[in-house]
Every structure is written in C-alpha cells, then in structure tokens.
Write a structure and sequence with these properties.
236 residues; alpha/beta; Rossmann fold; six-stranded parallel sheet; 12 helices; 6 strands; 12% strand; globular
C-alpha cells in the first residue's frame, strides 16, 4: 500500500497520464479489505494494482499503528478524483467516466465542467448493470482508447470496478482508478460529511444514513469482521 502524501500521489498519476502510459489505482477501505480477506480471488485481484491508497480512516490508523509511524495519509477517491480533474484540465489531459447510472454520470460530468471549465471530458457512460458481452467489452475498450483519455474513472462499486480494471490493465491505455461512490459525491447526490466526522472515522455512519437499505447490512458485516481481524492480529 502506498503511504505517500496526497500531492505526491496526484502529481505522480498526472505525470503518468500526461506521458500516455497506463496504470491501475485502488483506494483501500474497510469494505474491500474485508472482502479481500474472505475471498482469495479478490485478494489476488488487488495484488495486480500498481497503486493502492488508504481511503478509510480505520485503514490509516491501523497502518500507522502497525508501522509505529505516522507515515500513512488518508487519500480518498473523491478528493483525489477532484484534484486529478483540476490537474488534467491544466495539462490538457482528457478524462473519461464509466459507471453508475445515466443520471449520476451526466450530472457528474456537468458539475465538473462547471467547476473546471477547461476540463476535457472525452466520454462518460453509465454501467449496463450486467456482465458485458465480448462485443460490448471490445467496443467499450475501443471507445475509451480512441477518445484519447489519459484518466479513466470507474465507478462500478466494489468488487466489480476492481475486477474490471484488473481485467483491462493491458488493454486500456489510460490511468484507471476505482472511485466507487465518488461519482455520487461529486455529482451532488450524496453530501460530504464534515471534517470532524471524517477524522473520527464515522463517515460510514453518514453513508448508512444516506442509503440505509443498501448499506446497513454491509457495514454491520464488514465493520464487525474488521474489528475481529484487528483483535486477531493484536493477539498474534
């Protein structure tokens, strides 16, 4: 896992994209860490990523505790995505959005264009919410590559976005980032919690309040398993 500063991560990814080189980026939170612990195949998928940044506050706390140093800095998908779009506009790097619903991805694109007028959106398209056929997959790869996009933001949710990016690490010529709910946050569909909530590691509770039906069981399960994993490591 990368424990660099936010500005270092931003500048490195922009440099890779400006050079026209590919890279794969994951943001590690409690949810995908627990899935990786339970699912060996998903754990192997995460190992294919070039960069993994600590997104969740508990991940940062745990990393720093294990290292006994305050090296890890939280780098959230939504904050880095926003910063990368601003940097891409300055450097003339086109961006591409793939995932979520038609409404979310269109509002996301419009919001970012309004905030960053120089941003070049090479393409934006929603998920079809089913596995792509071979032909659909080839066509999607062609659309992304032919668009000239240097940054591809994928918001399919975990674990689908990780599986998509890992499977296309050799075929898509862009820096690919798993950004999940960042689409909804930057589209204004979810409100960003205050800093004090984020620093206390309670952002998950705000997410549950925003999407209770979809998320309460997930967080109950993953948070409980994460606490058990910590306890087990402490005993070891």
């Amino acid at each position: 896992m990368c424990t660099c500063r936010f500005s270092t991560a931003r500048d490195a990814l922009l440099s890779i994209a400006a050079a026209g080189d590919p890279a794969t980026v994951e943001f590690l939170a409690v949810n995908n860490l627990v899935i990786a612990n339970d699912d060996e195949a998903f754990g192997a998928t995460l190992k294919t990523f070039d960069y993994i940044f600590p997104d969740g506050a508990p991940i940062v706390w745990t990393t720093n505790k294990m290292q006994r140093l305050r090296q890890a800095q939280r780098i959230t998908a939504r904050e880095l995505m926003s910063a990368l779009c601003a940097g891409a506009a300055n450097k003339g790097i086109p961006v591409y959005f793939y995932g979520s619903t038609e409404n979310v991805v269109q509002v996301l694109s419009a919001n970012l264009k309004e905030q960053i007028p120089e941003l070049v959106v090479a393409g934006c398209e929603p998920s079809v919410f089913r596995p792509l056929t071979d032909r659909e997959d080839r066509d999607l790869i062609d659309r992304i590559n032919n668009s000239g996009a240097g940054l591809l933001f994928v918001g399919l949710g975990c674990p689908l976005q990780e599986q998509f990016i890992s499977a296309h690490r050799e075929s898509i010529r862009a820096v690919q980032l798993c950004v999940g709910s960042a689409f909804k946050f930057l589209a204004g569909h979810h409100s960003i919690p205050p800093l004090w909530v984020q620093r206390m590691g309670l952002e998950w509770l705000v997410r549950v309040m925003q999407e209770p039906r979809r998320l309460w069981q997930r967080y109950l399960k993953t948070n409980s398993k994460f606490l058990w994993m910590l306890l087990r490591e402490a005993v070891k």
